[in-house]
Amino acid sequence: MRAIEISAPGGPDVLRLVERHRPRPGPGEVLIRVTAAGVNRPDIFQRQGRYPPPPGVTDIPGLEVSGRVVEIGPAAEPLPAGGAAREGGATRYLPGIERDGVHPEATWTPALGDHVCALVSGGGYAEYCVAPALQCLPVPDGLTDIEAASLPETYFTVWSNVFDRARLQPGESILVQGGASGIGVAAIQFATAFGCRVFATAGTAEKCAVCERLGAERAIDYRREDFTAVVRERTAGRGVDVILDMVGGDYLPRETAALAEDGRLVLINAMGGAKATLDLLEVMIKRLTITGSTLRARPVAVKAAIARALHDHIWPLLETGAIRPVVDRVFPLEQAAQAHAVMERGEHVGKIVLQVA
Ligand SMILES: NC(=O)c1ccc[n+]([C@@H]2O[C@H](COP(=O)([O-])OP(=O)(O)OC[C@H]3O[C@@H](n4cnc5c(N)ncnc54)[C@H](OP(=O)(O)O)[C@@H]3O)[C@@H](O)[C@H]2O)c1
Question: Which of 21, 127, 147, 214 could, after both became Cys, cross-link 1 (CB 3.0–4.6 A)?
Fold first, then answer.
């Protein structure tokens, strides 16, 4: 099969189109004939040698795909009940729909020939890709394969961090840093759909306008404005309940200042620096929670629980059009290097997708 490999750590031009053996699905996995593969910022970190695949995972980049199921692997051992809850509560739901533990028997699982999108730990930039069956979701009605391939990595990440870890509730408020990113456009739309007040930051006036069209009541140009001052002013000094952040570094003290009492800060990266100085008295006085997570290394049981939550709560909103994919541009598989270059220059809004077939 045709695939993209990282020939050496480096810039976009280290991505090479090569021939590789077609992978075989193991227990609990399916083989997908890939139509499209999403591009994500973590793929760039992997290409640069800063985010190696977990042990046992292919070196081919790509964390999400869409396509048809062409082979089903042998049956898997049942997942441990309650595994996700033990691993950190990936099964918290919105009020009235709380669940506990993992119920793999009730999770949607794909059959031969099904049209799916899937979260994978690697291998998406290829004509065939294996995925755990429990990490597959049906392509939502009305969406193209290109649009469906743009969903899994950001949707799983936003759900598990904003709703599971940071426990955002309807009626609360959230600040989404990087609102025009693939992650940001999903977070703004999810929070808006669940009746939250949304603020977002972005680096240009055009990107701010997109954030507001997606539902943010006020987007803040982080190069020209102080997000702490804007958020505090718009909330009559109270601050927001949740902040989703991928910048870290010197944003941390500004974020704790922008949080309300009992506020939650959830980190999904530290692009501005992994070390921060915090006012611990402010953390105590305001009873703040600072948390975060990375998705790729988490077990299938956790990802299965997130898939089920997305299927229950987000897929219906995709099918009515209340939430929609935001695909900025599409490149053929062999132009993966150009796709990475566009992402690194920050020219995109939302997602970049590779057309594989
Ligand atoms: N923890 C996890 O499991 C997980 C999973 C997926 C992704 N992530 C992380 O989430 C982030 C977004 O991923 P993506 O694929 O959506 O990438 P992306 O589309 O390339 O987005 C990167 C974003 O960072 C924003 N940004 C950079 N500096 C900023 C600053 N000082 N203040 C506010 N925003 C700033 C950019 O804003 P402008 O373009 O407006 O300047 C851009 O929107 C990445 O850091 C990625 O590593 C984490």
Answer: 127
